[in-house]
Every structure is written in C-alpha cells, then in structure tokens.
Write a structure and sequence with these properties.
alpha/beta, lipid biosynthesis, two-stranded antiparallel ribbon, Peroxisomal Thiolase, Chain A, domain 1, lipid metabolism, single chain, Ketoacyl_synth_N, globular, 2 domains, transferase, about 35% helix, 13 helices, PKS_Beta-ketoAc_synthase_dom
Length: about 400
C-alpha cells in the first residue's frame, strides 16, 4: 500500500485566516471567542461565539462565484486554495483526474437555509433564490473546490457532525493507500452561526453561558466548565502518496499513517460514559498505523469543555494508553477557537502536523481548577516545547460517531 504524506495546509479560523497567524496565536494562548457581532444576540441566553472575523471572500475567489456560495463553501474554497498553494501543487488538465476532494461538514449551508426559509414565509415564493439548493447542499464545499480549482477526480462529502473533519482524513487515507488517486484535498468546514442554531444548542444545555467572560468560557477539562462555545471555520490538508510528492520534490510536513472510525450506538448527543467507542477508535487507528500507544507523544483532544465529553474522553485515553496516558501530552484547541463542529477535527489534524513540524504543542487555556476526574497532562495554559514524533487527532460527534487520525514525523 502507498504511504501518504501531508504537503499543504490551509485554514480559516477565529484566530486567523492563514496558517502562520493561526498557529502563532494558538501557541500564545490567545482566545478567538467574544460577544457575537454578526447579529444582535441580546435576546438570546447565549451571546458569545468563536466567529471568523475579517473574512472577505473576494480576497480568495471571484466575486461572482462567491455570491453563489454559502459561507461554509466560501471558507472551503479559501482554505483549499491556501493548502494547494502551500503544497506548490499545480493542477492541470493532465493531472486533474488523479486529484480528488474529500471535504466534510456538520451542517452545510445553514445561513442560506435560514435566509431562504424566511424569504419564503415573509416575502413569498417568488423571492426564494434560484441558487438556494446549490448553496445549502452539504456537498457544495467539496464541489466548489472542484469547480474553482479544476479538480476532476472523485469529489466527496460526508456529514459526520463533530467527527466530520477527521473522518475526511481517514477516508482520504484509504483511497490514497490503494492508489485510486494521487492527491486528495481533505478537511472540514462549518459556518452555522445563526440565532436559531445558537438557540438550539443552548436549549440542549450544550453551550457555555459565560456571556460576561467570553475568553474564559471554553474550559476543557476544568472543574468549572459549563459547555462548549459554538464556532465557525475551515481546515484543509493536501494529502499525497509519497511517490507523487517525491516525484515533484514537494515539502513534506509529516506522514498520515493510520486512522479509524467507530460508532457508540449509545445516544443522539451524549458520549458513552465509559468512552468505549472513542477508545476503540483510538485502538483501531493505532493498529492501522502499526504504532504502539507509548510511541504517541501528543494527543490533540476533542476536548469540548462539556461536563460529559471531557470525562468520557479522559476515560477513553486511559483505556487505550494505559500507564502512558499519564505521560502523553494532551491539549484542546477548542479552549481558544471554540467548537468548529464539522471543521473541528480537521483543525486538530492541522495542529498535529504543525506540532510535529515545530516540536511544540499548544496549551489548553482556562485550565485553572482541574477536574479530579480529568487527571491527565492537558498542557495547561502555556505551550510546551517538546519532541513530537507522533500525534493523534481525536474527533467525536453527535450520534456517536468517532474518528481518529494518526500522524508521524516523515522519514524516507
């Protein structure tokens, strides 16, 4: 089977619209969470979110094309373009059929859905946009990448809630290993910050209500956590077979060596308390990577800051890693960028690649009062310089979907 390497990265996040800005601010422990500015949240119980600020689609794509895309697809095209440029990948009619897209999401075009439903009921059928269907469809992030960059290989999108971004890497890995494709543009995107979506999560009891302390609201593994912070963004990787990357003398960040997906079969929104599905995903991913638990240096945790998830993930890590669970470094970027839902796992993969590149892991900020049930090393509050040879990205979603990807320093 073909080895698979990471050659390009791109992000649109609450901490920055490019890789180096995002990475620098993440390592500095900065928070991208604040009071919602894209609409007036005054009437809502939850008034904070992790918004992408300063994003102008015209900076990344043709204005006319951007007008026909929902925000989630605009993010996808922007991040993919960064990753393609970062990889130095030239897409031509000669190689376009050997390049694919696997761009997942949790909700698709939520902004378009809300806007056009309101148009229908408030302004009448004639005011519904003829572009409504191709704007809200969840596959349109992937399809717009294909159209904008001329990619004619397989174009795929899975809806896998909060596991979507990592699942994209796992599915892309399988296709590349088999030689069905030479290059895959893979990742996750989400842009669902609408009043109805915020209210729905709030009514579930899933969101933090620290409206007066937005930067302190996301507190993974902290005793005083009270829910996650809803966010938006996108992360994309260029994945290639090793042979293809070496033929074109590409710069290689790291190698994607394994992955797995599992199901909890437990609850529509709560994780299994014993973390069995998450543990099995990590165990299967390590087996697929032919890697021992004690070879993992860093875990980019799902770490949502909800009372149930953080304990469940901690139990799952202990189940999988045994005594090494107390030695491995673990951190949650969600403490700074909130929960990006379908993009969350993709961001975690990017964090793993950068941690391996730079031998440093980002902190879990706001970890001030450790939960006795969360007693592992979560790299509290300050980034840590350390050797990172191997890392895993965890992502666990509503409905019990679990996805794990394993990355390793590349050696030829």
């Amino acid at each position: 089977m073909h080895r698979v390497v990471v050659t390009g990265l791109g992000v649109i996040t609450p901490l920055g619209l490019d890789i180096e800005t995002f990475w620098s601010r993440l390592l500095n422990g900065e928070s991208g969470i604040d009071r919602i500015s894209s609409f007036d949240p005054s009437d809502l119980e939850v008034q904070i979110a992790a918004e992408v600020k300063g994003f102008d689609p015209k900076d990344f794509m043709d204005f006319k094309a951007a007008r026909r895309m929902d925000r989630f697809a605009q993010f996808a095209v922007a991040a993919a373009g960064q990753a393609i440029q970062d990889a130095g990948l030239a897409i031509t009619p000669e190689n376009a059929q050997r390049i694919g897209v696997m761009l997942n999401t949790g909700g698709g075009g939520i902004h378009s859905m809300v806007r056009e439903v309101l148009n229908f009921y408030q302004r009448g059928p004639s005011r519904v946009s003829p572009f409504f269907v191709p704007m809200f469809a969840p596959n349109m992030g992937a399809c717009q990448i294909s159209i904008v960059y001329g990619i004619t290989g397989p174009i795929m999108a899975s809806v896998a809630a909060c596991a979507a971004g990592t699942q994209a890497f796992v599915d892309a890995l399988r296709m590349l290993r088999l030689g069905e494709i030479d290059v895959m543009i893979a990742g996750g995107t989400e842009a669902g910050l609408e009043p109805v979506a915020v209210t729905a999560f709030a009514n579930m009891g899933a969101l933090s209500r620290r409206n007066d302390q937005p930067q302190k609201a996301s507190r993974p593994f902290d005793r005083d956590r009270d829910g996650f912070v809803f966010g938006e963004g996108c992360a994309v990787m260029v994945l290639e077979t090793e042979e293809h990357a070496r033929r074109r003398d590409a710069r290689i960040y790291c190698e994607l060596i394994g992955g797995a997906v599992t199901g909890d079969a437990f609850h529509i929104s709560a994780p299994a308390p014993n973390g069995a599905g998450a543990a099995r995903a990590m165990e299967l991913a390590l087996a697929d990577a032919r890697t021992r638990p004690d070879e993992i240096d860093y875990i980019c945790a799902h770490g949502t800051s909800t009372p149930l998830n953080d304990v469940s993930e901690t139990v799952a890590i202990k189940t999988t890693f045994g005594e090494h669970a107390y030695r491995v470094a673990i951190s949650s970027p969600k403490s700074m960028i909130g929960h990006l839902v379908g993009a969350a796992g993709a961001v975690s993969g990017v964090v793993c690649a950068l941690a391996i590149r730079d031998n440093i892991v980002p902190p879990t900020i706001n970890l001030e009062n450790p939960d006795p049930e969360c007693d592992l090393d979560y790299v509290p509050n300050v980034a840590r310089r350390m050797r990172v040879n191997a890392a895993i990205a965890n992502a666990f979603g509503f409905g019990g979907q679990n996805a794990v990807a394993v990355f390793r320093r590349y050696e030829d």
